[in-house]
Amino acid sequence: MQIRDLIPWARKEHSPEPKTRTGEDNPIATLQHDMNRVFEGFWNRLGALDWPLGSDAKSDVVETANAIEVSIELPGMEMKDIEVSVTDDTLTIKGEKRVERQEEKTGYYLSERSYGAIYRSLPLPPGVDGSKAEASFRNGVLTIRLPQTAEAQSRVRRIEVQGA
Question: Which end of the chain is more exposed for a tag (fewer CB within 10 A), N or C?
Answer without folding.
Answer: C
